[in-house]
Every structure is written in C-alpha cells, then in structure tokens.
Write a structure and sequence with these properties.
The protein is of the alpha/beta class. The protein has helices spanning about 15-25, 40-45, 55-70, 105-120, 145-155, 155-160, 165-180, 190-195, 220-230, 265-275, 285-300, 310-330, and strands spanning about 1-5, 75-80, 85-90, 125-130, 135-145, 200-205, 230-235, 245, 260, 280-285, 305-310. The chain folds into 2 domains: about 1-75 and about 310-330, no CATH class; about 85-300, von Willebrand factor, type A domain (Rossmann fold, 3-Layer(aba) Sandwich), CATH 3.40.50. The strands form 3 sheets. Strands 5-4-3-6-7-10 form a 6-stranded mixed beta sheet, sandwiched between helices. A 3-stranded antiparallel beta sheet has the order 1-2-11. β3 (about 85-90), α4 and β4 (about 125-130) form a beta-alpha-beta unit.
C-alpha cells in the first residue's frame, strides 16, 4: 500500500496520545465522595465491567486511526483500466459453429456476446477481429473505431465454411497482428500501436472444435503467444452432445441422406492453451454462459498494473467503527435503578 500524502500519517500520533489521556482521566480519583448504602445493588450495576468498559474507547481509538490513515490518501496496487490496450478477438467460424445446441447457433451466441463486449470496452482500446476455419482471415485490424469491428462481426457468416478448424494457425495469425514489436520485425498496425503506447495486449479466443487442419498444431500457436508475452483467454463453446445436422446431398452437393455429425468442443486443448500463455479458460455451454465469459474477460483484459485510491473505503470503515463505539458505549453504560 502507498499513500498520496505520506506525511499526514504523522497524525497517527494522536491515537496513542488520546489513549494515554483516556487512561489518565479514567484513573483520576473522584473529586467528591458519594455514599451509597445498598452495596449489593451497586455491585450488580458496576460488576463484571472491568474488560467490557474498555471496548467502546478501543473502537473509538481504532476509528480515529482509520480516519488518520484516510487523510494520507491510501492507494493499493491493482489492475486498472487501460484506455490504450489492444485486444484481438479470434472467433471460430467453421461449419460446426452452425450447431444449435447453443441458441440460436453457436456462432450467433458468440456474435451476441462480442457485441456486448464492444459496448462496454473503453473507447480508446484497440480491438481487432480474426475469423478462422480451415485458415485464418483478418476481419478487422486493431482499431479504436469499434463500429468497424461490429460491422465485421455481422459478416462473420460470410467467412463460415466447412474447411476444418485450424486452431494453431489462428493463434499464430493473432500473435502476428497483436504482439509487441521485436527488433527487426515487420511493423504492422498492431506493432506500431504497441510501440507507441506501451499498451497491454490480449487475445480472446473462441472455438468449439478439435484441430482438424492447419500448418501449426494448437500448442505451437500457443507457444508463439507465450514467447511474445501475450496471454490467450480461451472459451470452449458448445455441449459434449452437440451435433450438426447435414442436409440431404451434403453441404456442398453430392449424394447421401441426412446425417447427424457429432461436434463436441475440445475444452482440454483450450484449457492448456490458456495455461501455457498465462490466460484464463472458460467453458460455455449456453448463450448466457458465453456472455458471462465475455463479461468476466472485460474485468481482466484491457487492464494494466496501477494504483487505486481507497480513501473512501477507509472513511467508511472509520464511520462504522464510530457508530459501533457509540452504540456499545450506550449499551454498556451503567444504569442505576
């Protein structure tokens, strides 16, 4: 913990001074002697208070100390919102994303969740979008114009295909689009953004299937992100019993009757990708779960180490202690019949 005005911590010296003054006054002999003939009643009123009588003044001193700390403007280390972050959204648009085990479809649920993410992300955060199936394509380069990303999101169905799922290649493409610059590297838009703003970079990766195509294996793509220092936050979308209904003749023509093709997600691979890169894994089996995952990610990505002032918290604690001290003092005060 740090303080905006550390010299004001010297006001804490008031606390032991006030405690000492209380003890002196409490032990001072009475100026006038009083007589009370009924000693049994007097004992019942004043007995068993040797410890309890110190509780209210102790709370009062603790409240005073808390308020003195508040004067010094305390701060704690935490992750604070960064308006200059870069977030690359990577969305699986392979054929299995047309499965309806997540309503309305897996892809539709993903699009709805990303829209809410874009509504809440700070305006100065650069957001990019990559769509992938058998290969990865940049749908929107990193930009602060989130409307461009939203429009690209609406057209993800045009990228949708049945050419397989290239998780490793998609990760590599996201890293190339978003990673911080390295000596001698080609300067892409994201490289320039990162070098000028020193901004944190994150990848949000949503997929529902196993790797079926691509030049790189998933962990090869994850290793590129790890070496670039980019955390990958993964979401496994879909249910284990998810199926894709293939119409008669197949999606691309040909012959054959209707088919039900199992399309279970691969949570273990996505969990390991997140673990290797220092990200976080989410498993989403419903549209609500997808939205919750993106909301949770909103509290993690687009943030950087910083300090947050907690003066109000100390003031609130001091007020609570003062009220408690006053209440206990009234309850424990002796009452003569």
């Amino acid at each position: 913990m740090s303080f905006g005005h550390p010299l004001l911590l010297l006001t804490l010296l008031v606390v032991p001074a006030a405690g000492g003054l209380y003890l002196v006054l409490e032990r001072r002999p009475a100026r006038y002697a009083m007589t009370f003939t009924n000693l049994e009643v007097l004992a019942s009123v004043t007995g068993n208070r040797s410890v309890r009588r110190y509780v209210p003044p102790a709370l009062m001193l603790l409240a005073l100390a808390t308020l003195c700390v508040a004067l010094a403007r305390p701060h704690r280390s935490t992750l604070v919102p960064s308006d200059r972050a870069t977030v690359i959204l990577v969305v699986d648009v392979s054929g299995s994303m047309r499965a309806t085990d997540v309503k309305p479809t897996r892809l539709g649920a993903a699009q709805a969740a990303v829209r809410k993410f874009l509504d809440k992300v700070p305006a100065r955060v650069h957001v990019g979008l990559i769509a992938f199936s058998g290969e990865a394509q940049v749908a929107a380069p990193p930009t602060t114009d989130h409307e461009v990303v939203r429009e690209s999101l609406d057209t993800l169905g045009l990228f949708s295909g049945f050419g397989g799922t290239a998780i490793g290649d998609a990760l590599a493409a996201a890293v190339e689009l978003a990673k911080p610059p390295t000596p001698g590297s080609t300067q892409t838009i994201a490289f320039t953004i990162a070098s000028q703003t020193k901004s944190p970079v994150s990848i949000l990766f949503l997929s529902d299937g196993h790797q079926t195509r691509g030049l790189l294996q998933p962990f090869e793509g994850a290793d590129r992100a790890r070496r670039a220092g980019i955390p990958v936050y993964t979401i496994a979308l879909g249910t284990p019993n998810g199926v894709l209904n293939r119409p008669p003749g197949g999606f691309g023509g040909g012959f054959g009757g209707p088919q039900r093709i199992p399309v279970p997600p691969d949570p273990e691979t996505l969990r390991e990708i997140a673990g290797v890169t220092g990200g976080k894994f989410f498993e989403a089996r419903s549209a609500h779960a997808v939205e919750s995952a993106y909301q949770n990610l909103g509290s993690v990505v687009a943030r950087e180490p910083g300090r947050k002032e907690v003066t109000n918290e100390f003031l609130a604690l001091g007020a609570i202690l003062l009220v408690a001290a006053g209440g206990l003092s009234a309850l424990l005060a002796p009452r003569l019949p």
